[in-house]
Design brief:
Elements lengths: L11 H11 L12 E5 L3 H13 L2 E5 L17 E2 L11 H11 L6 H21 L24 E2 L5 H19 L2 E4 L2 E9 L2 E9 L5 E5 L2 E4 L20 H8 L4 E2 L4 E7 L22 E5 L16 E2 L1 H5 L9 H13 L11 E4 L1 H7 L1 H19 L8 E10 L2 E2 L12 E3 L17 H21 L12 H20 L5 H16 L5 H21 L11 H25 L23 H4 L1 E6 L8 E6 L14
Parallel strand pairs: 1-2, 1-9, 2-5, 9-17
Antiparallel strand pairs: 3-4, 6-7, 7-8, 10-16, 10-18, 11-15, 12-13, 12-14, 14-15, 18-19
Helix pairs in contact: 1-4, 2-5, 2-11, 3-4, 4-11, 9-10, 13-14, 13-15, 14-15
């Protein structure tokens, strides 16, 4: 099947405005007749639930945390992009659009990326009005800093806590609607199935994580805002509760999964310090504004960093990418760091690290300026490593961070299952094969505040509200299926913990489908993953029962989904016989080691249809057309 993204035609500068006018509207008095289920309350979900509630719809919002304030969006550090051009350094909506298309290695939809760039300025105005404390310069104007993949300063920030502050802004808007009664909040609940009636998404089945109760909520549309899946690698910068479960359950009910092999490895993370570690810690990309990445020039040079003179240091990003230097895009900076470590010039335990050095910036600007810009990041680094990064360089190494792949959606953010909308990191649409820094927060808030309020109305205006009730046979069947799955976990009573299986899977995925992949490594993973999955269903140990607070049971469900999803992700990586962005097949690289695309054969989004566990999924393609940015070799030199 050739998929249609339903992108509007005509001059790209007018597409979103024309599309908004062409879409159907729901009369203000009729909005209260419709119920919308929003799953996930991070930036995308929180903004969507607040906006839809403000418009007058009945909204039910769900999160597995004890409060929407604890959504993983809180962990974002460095900033959010917008094309305000406050520094007057040459930025524009077109330049933000161009940088994002190029940053994604020409594997994103033009129309979606243009819309993202266009509404980016509205996001800043919205957040300032909410009281988000963005950094300001001496005169009181909003400040900007640079991020990778751009030669302008367009990133708005709140020290190293930008995600937290933006989430509190969205949460305040959400809390207002909860008080007004338009939004009903269900914390400590996890979506375990999608209810599809006559081909349309009409509800979700959830587990109350405190009592263990399984129940169905029905509505007129479902909006998934459940983040990414990089915990498939076990160790990542994501919170340990982040999973593929909600998206995967939707996939098993018919939603296509697009580009699952596109994952982002972040170059600026604290290196792993032991085998029993359960997650990795992100250090914001913004640090590369003032920090310089380097390793010793000589292999095996174990001197303390302060004893290595400048002439014996290799500032490898500045050497390889003089135009962008330390602010090269994440996929390129990550591979460059791995390259140095593979050449036996890495630093720290096991040689798996590079230095991020602030000495020259401190000398030029003063420690107080660096402290003001990044103080909480330096404090966090010291708490974890017991090293003062004002005195000695930080040690960093790449780590899994973000999912560019996700459920396939059209221009309206609706999946191929009518009534199922997918926002933020959970969809595939705007980042292509690599996300530029400070774009995740932009996408989440753009989708939640400025896209879904328009596009969902176009769907709702065409249906009759309240058609499906909670006693519908499909709802009863969904509850039954979920209960059977949970009973199965508890009844196995094997010898290995869920974490042991997750760690085993993560090691296979990182070594074979991580920062670099090959035909051989993907085939090896496809051989081993089913073996791990088979053993899991025979030998996993889940104590307790389903009718209680049981985190072992929660984790078992999430790892079971990862064990199925990992196979699709690897299959997609094997199928895409090219390198692009974060998808790096070692067989396909330029003479200088950069990713080598194959536009003739792979200039499309790969959307996979579920055909059963262990069965070959069916591939559907959405061709990508580039009419406003010409396909070109992606260079940051």
């Amino acid at each position: 099947m050739i998929l249609d993204g339903k992108c509007p035609t005509g001059p790209i500068e007018k597409t979103w405005d024309k599309h908004r006018f062409d879409m159907k509207l729901v009369n203000p008095a009729n909005k209260r007749k419709y119920k919308i289920l929003v799953v996930g309350t991070g930036l995308a979900g929180g903004a969507a639930a607040a906006s839809l509630g403000e418009l007058g719809y009945n909204v039910e919002a769900f999160c597995y945390q004890d409060s929407p304030r604890r959504a993983h969006s809180i962990a974002a550090q460095g900033g959010i992009n917008a094309a305000k051009n406050y520094p007057n350094d040459g930025d524009s909506i077109y330049r933000l659009f161009y940088d994002t298309i190029k940053g994604g290695d020409f594997r994103a939809r033009e129309a979606d990326v243009w819309r993202l760039a266009q509404v980016s300025n509205n996001i800043i105005d919205q957040c300032v009005a909410q009281g988000v404390p963005f950094a300001r310069d001496y005169a009181g104007y909003l400040d900007n800093r640079s991020f990778g993949g751009a030669q302008v300063s367009r990133t708005f920030y709140a020290r190293g806590q930008t995600g937290q502050q933006l989430l509190l802004g969205a949460y305040s808007a959400l809390a207002r609607q909860i008080k007004a009664g338009t939004v009903k909040m269900f914390p400590r609940t996890e979506m375990l199935d999608l209810v599809v009636v006559d081909g349309e998404a009409k509800g979700i089945t959830i587990r109350d994580l405190v009592t263990g109760e399984i129940r169905t909520h029905v509505g007129d549309a479902v909006v998934l805002c459940t983040g990414g899946y990089v915990n498939v690698f076990y160790l990542s910068t994501n919170a340990m509760g982040c999973s593929v479960t909600a998206a995967w359950k939707a996939h098993k009910k018919g939603a296509f999964f697009a580009n699952p092999c596109y994952t982002q490895i972040h170059p600026t993370c604290i290196p792993q310090h032991g085998d029993k570690q359960s997650k990795l810690t992100l250090m914001s990309e913004s640090l590369r504004n003032d920090g310089r990445c380097w390793v010793p020039k000589k292999q095996g040079d174990n001197r303390a960093p302060g004893q290595i003179p400048d002439e014996d240091r290799d500032y490898y990003l500045e050497r390889k990418y003089p135009s962008f230097g330390n602010l090269a895009p994440r996929d390129i900076a990550s591979r460059a760091a791995k390259e140095q470590c593979d050449d036996n010039r890495g630093v720290g335990p096991g040689g798996r690290g590079v230095y991020l050095d602030f000495a020259s910036s401190i000398q030029r600007l003063g420690e107080s300026t660096i402290r003001e810009r990044y103080g909480n990041l330096f404090e966090m680094y010291e708490k974890i490593t017991d090293e003062n990064a004002y005195k000695v360089p930080m040690r960093i190494y790449p780590a899994p961070h973000y999912s560019m792949g996700g459920l396939w959606v059209d221009y309206n953010c609706m999946s191929n299952v009518p009534g199922l909308f997918v926002l933020g990191e959970a969809n595939f649409s705007v980042h292509g094969a690599n996300r530029l820094g400070a774009s995740a927060l932009m996408q989440g808030l753009a989708d939640g505040y400025f896209v879904i309020p328009y596009t969902i109305a176009d769907y709702l205006a065409r249906i009759t509200p309240g058609k499906v009730k909670a006693d519908h046979p499909e709802c009863k069947k969904s509850v039954e299926d979920v209960n059977n799955d949970l009973k199965k976990f508890v009844s196995i009573n094997g010898k290995k913990t869920v974490t042991e299986f997750h760690r085993e899977l993560g090691k296979i995925m990182w070594n074979n489908v991580g920062m670099a992949r090959s035909e051989e490594s993907c085939k090896e993973a496809l051989k081993v993953i089913p073996q791990i999955r088979e053993e899991f269903w025979k030998n996993v140990k889940v104590s307790g029962s389903g009718a209680e607070f049981n985190q072992q049971l929660e984790n078992a469900g999430r790892v079971a989904d990862f064990l199925e999803f990992a196979e699709l992700m690897t299959l997609d990586a094997l199928h895409r016989n090219e390198s692009c962005g974060g998808h790096f097949r070692v067989e396909h690289q330029m003479p200088d080691g950069e990713a080598k695309r194959d536009d003739e054969n792979y200039c499309y989004a790969a959307a996979w249809e579920f055909k059963g566990v262990g069965k070959e999924p069916e591939l559907h393609k959405e061709p990508l057309k580039f009419e406003n940015v010409h396909l070109a070799i992606r260079s940051y030199k």
